[in-house]
Amino acid sequence: MSMFDILDISATGMHAQTVRLNTTASNLANADSVSSNAEETYRAKKPVFQTILESQAETGIDPRGGVRIKEIVESQAPLKMEYNPNHPMANKDGYIFRPNVNVVEEMADMLSASRSYQTNIEVMNTSKQLMLRTIQLGK
Question: Which parts of the sequence belong to the Flagellar basal body rod protein N-terminal domain (predicted)?
Answer without folding.
Answer: 7-32
